[in-house]
Amino acid sequence: MNPAEAPRCIAVLRMSALGDVVMTLPLLRTLQKAFPRAKIHWIVSRPFHTIVEGVSGVELIVIDKPRGPVSFWRLWWQMRKYDFDWLLVPQASMRANLVTVVSRAKRKIGFGTLHSRDLQRWFVNETVPAEPEHLIDSFLQFATYVGAREHVLEWDLPLRPDEHAWAKTQVEECAGIKLAVVLAASKPERNWPVARYCETLERIAARWPLTVVLIGGPGKAERALAGELHKGLRVPVLDMVGRTDLRQLAALLGQVDALLAPDTGPLHIAQAMGKPVVGLYAVAPSKKTGPYVEPQWSVDVFAEAAATILGRERMGWRQRVHDERALRLITVDAVVDKIERLFEHRGFKPGATS
Fold first, then answer.
1. Helix, strand, coil percent content, the chain, rounded in steps of 5
2. pTM over 0.90
3. Which of 86, 142, 205, 207 could serve as 235's disulfide partner, Cβ 3.0–4.6 Å?
4. Would you say residue 353 lies in a domain?
């Protein structure tokens, strides 16, 4: 790239959701390496900005998602002071489109046809070539498009020493292998039955020394599922459901040995903290939204769900199996096998939970 054409100021617009915000970090790192003299901004929504607050070399622009004329006016007023050379928009939604409208960026770059929706192509002036690929790869395509030659697969969540110390204190009395477990995803169709979690964990604990670190949000649904697990489980449990903010959650995941979870935000936080994940996938394919590093530990029955529930042998890249029966196709045997293979791979020593 001609130095005269190099950008002075780049903005990335990815407001939500939690897992997607975490997965945006490699794009930011790649842009930083490719354009070291450019100022990098990240437009992110208020509920999720705390997990990346303090990320080095990036200025966060924290916004409230526009919900009406008043909030749109406030957004316009907030954004008018920024003069971006490039606005990269790896988020296809009408609210992202509204943010794009008020930006004064010279180049507005959005998704190509495969990943675009909500008329995004009407709000940008350039689009990135699209492939059927993992979401992280689709984000990194933006960097490739603007001239970055090397992708930087680094997350580096900006946690403070006191947050790490707090998390270490929480788990210091946990014996054996610390397996974090998430029971509830953002949508019930992505939840695996609690009875199957209980059976899985009992079988694992019969062979491996285990403490379950239960994590989740403060909602009634999460607490109800946690209570159901407690009633049916005879394995030691550290119940942290509703007891962490996003940064504490990340720090806590940094202290466990592995995570068992459906397709949900903490799965990507665990990966960002360098922890292996046994992901449960049926509504969407793991090759699109599953763990990017060590994907082999996930249990994926998406193709089976499409065939048995929808009667489809082939699914489009954007199609999903929106049915609560989908996750029930995942067997306890399959999950136990993945967890044990992971434990063996990590060199953990067998020995039943006392």
1. 40, 15, 45
2. yes
3. 205
4. no
Asked if the structure places residue 335 within a domain, the reply is yes
Q: How far apart are CA 48 and CA 274, in angstroms?
A: 20
Tell me whether residue 151 is in a domain. Answer: no
Same domain? 46 vs 169:
no
What are the C-alpha distances in Å from 231 to residues 133, 190, 224, 226? Answer: 41, 22, 11, 9
Sheet holding 86-88, edge to edge: 58-63, 39-45, 9-13, 86-88, 107-111, 126-128
Phi/psi for 169 (5° steps) reads: -65, -35
Structure tokens belonging to residue 122? 């009407």
| Stretch 74-94: mean pLDDT | 96
Q: Coil, helix or strand for 246? A: helix
The C-alpha atoms of residue 226 and residue 223 are separated, in whole angstroms, by 5
Cβ atoms < 10 Å from Cβ of 253: 27
- Structure token digits, residue 5: 């054409």
The answer to whether the beta carbons of residues 263 and 280 sit under 8 Å apart is yes
Burial class (CB in 10 A: 0-12, 13-18, 19+), 262: buried
Residue 2 banded pLDDT, cuts 50, 70, 90: low
Residues 139 and 178 in one domain: no
